[in-house]
What we know:
heterodimer, A: mainly alpha, 7 helices, B: mainly alpha, Cytochrome Bc1 Complex, Chain D, domain 2, two-stranded antiparallel sheet, 6 helices
Amino acid sequence: MNYLLRGIGVVAAVGVISLLAFSLPSPSGEARGDGGSETLPKLTHKNWQQECASCHIAYAPAFLPKASWRRVMGGLDQHFGENASLDPVTQADILRFLEANAADAGTSRMGNRVMQGMDAKSAPLRITETRWFVRKHDEVSRAVWSRKAVGSAANCAACHRQAEQGVFDEDTVRIPK
Amino acid sequence: MIKRLFRSSLAMLGMASTVAWAADNPASLMAHYAATAGVPVSGLSAKRGEMLYRTEHPGRNGQPVSCAACHTANPTQPGRTRVNKLIEPLAPAANPQRFTDAAKVEKWFRRNCTDVLQRECSAQEKGDFIAWLSQTK
């Protein structure tokens, strides 16, 4: 009887402890084994949000290095096949913001991740061309990218349902049928 | 004192921005484009505007493009950008924010005319375009 009670007590204690261990967020935020680098710092910048987000989501500056942003902002009149030109003042203002928060600005862990394995001299125009992006999406088949609800790899929010809030956690991914 | 200065400058900023945002509407823009084209407002044609909207042109990559390709055949309906982002309806009847900011209107004419027509639109074309959209229900 005594042993039985003690046994129940042990099982209960182990259960409670393991429940706690798995449900509490770890203080370092590294519970997902990915360095907690799946969420972007909250950034606000009127022109970036207004202008860049009129055709696609306002891609976070941390997704590309400064040299890339200079190329992107220097060629807005031929922006991936479309004319996205801006007045010079707005253009310079957005570029300043992008450079200050770029992948190599050292202001975000996501940026550090993007820079890992990137050639110091490379300045890709597309986020989807970075090694980081390719590695992160290597399990997504070509057929998924061309689904109508996705349309393009540029459409982050098709699967990353909280992309517009800067959240790219695996938990928030739902691939549309 | 500083507080008062701050308040009055805030008020002035508020006034300035109200003026900047509320100054334009479809009718004032039509008047502006008609004047630039050297025609009376009655010289703008909704019919030509509709044609401009619907006509397909060879795009940069050979694919046919038109305004309707992204804004859909019915401009009171939302459209989609090439990367699938929602475009609010273009017709003021469905979206009263349209054609209320001259700088924004100019920005999009400049971009989209070059994409669809491979050239900028004339003042007459811009006026025709707004004439059609502002009567589209």
